[in-house]
Amino acid sequence: MSYGQLQPMASPLERRSNTTQPPRLTSLDAYRGFIMLMLAASGFGIARLTRLPEDAPVWQVLDYDIWQDIGFQFDHPEWVSQFNLVGVSFWDLIQPAFMFMVGVAMPYSYARRESLGHSGFRQFAHAVWRAIVLVLMGVFLQSQRSEHTNWIFTNVLSQIGLGYLFLYLLAPRKPAIQWFAFAAILIGYCVYFESYTPPLDYDYSAVKATDETIFRGDFASWSKNANAGYQFDQWFLKLFPNASDQTSVNAGGYLTLNFVPSIATMMLGAFCGQLLRSDRKPWDKFWILIMGGACCMLLGLVAGWFICPIVKRIWTPSWVLFSGAWVVWMLAAFYLVFDLWGRRVTPLKWLAFPLVVVGMNSIAMYFMGQLMRPWTTRMCLTHFGSYLEMAFGPTLLADNMYGRIAEPTLAVIVFWLVALWLYRRKIFVRV
Length: 431
Known about the structure:
Number of strands: 2
Strand order of the largest sheet: 1-2
Helix content: 55-70%
Distance between the termini: 5 Å
Strand content: under 5%
Order of helices and strands: HHHEEHHHHHHHHHHHHH
Radius of gyration: 22 Å
Shape: globular
Number of domains: 1
Oligomer: single chain
């Protein structure tokens, strides 16, 4: 995917020749690679490990309470994503980071195609093609365990695809227009949700909503499966084949229309990409990222108190700002470590390499994790399980010991080796 390979390119006016290009930013590939590793490994099985009962043998070795705290970071909260003022589950930030990096890549991709002399129509046609393919790939992944195509659009690839064309159309606009569009998306989405309030006799149990996912009073419009987005899906998904299956209650409360505020998340990435491509001094860029994240956090908290709750599952506007702060700070951290410090500290270059290998082929890593992890795990256990137990002990692969971490780790090692093979041969999966 072209957005999976960020190649900083100068605009035609900035290029001195056809052969001179600014150096690649390691932080962008490393950031994306880190997120893809987490996805491909399914959080390295930590959430599954912490679900073992308290009397499981593993807790005679590991501290149960400490690992419950760690496990919280690798699972999605039931509804509200915020805790302890600015606290958030790391796993809730994975999808925002994925979408944010798509936005970061947009200024580079747009400038690269301009430098290659692509016409406006050709670029637009490519953006349309990419959007369609992303949506269909998401639908494909949603249909893995189904006997027919599930036309559901909540997978991250479908969400990116649905918003991608809008992001592309905003990419060349003036900053004032981009910021106006960003604000309009968030405000308009709030107005749309507030237009629907569930009736007093609404059957929440029928839509799998619990007391923890139901809001009363001013926030009632943001309850699980009792909101404007849910009503939209009840109409929209019936337009597709096998509608009876697709319009059944989404147990997680996820919505097709999540892609609308997600455009704002991608736009935050585009703003950061424009900053990183600018002529500002590197340390100035770092501090602008830090301050920009702080502004997002402040606005997100205020919005969460007075306008709408901070809920990742329905991508509330306050969540856009709240999660935006965290993913911007994560970008700042990667930029600091791998681009500001990494160019002078050799061990940091070594640390970046395994992440860059994945980041350069993010779509391949994502698909391997989604489609091949069970089979790869089974093959690893079949052919190497006995040797691993001889080397590390018989408890390594036991389900009530370390097996729930060891198995996804084995699979992701194989995926990384495949990514390394692709990297060395300069093969990069694109759309």
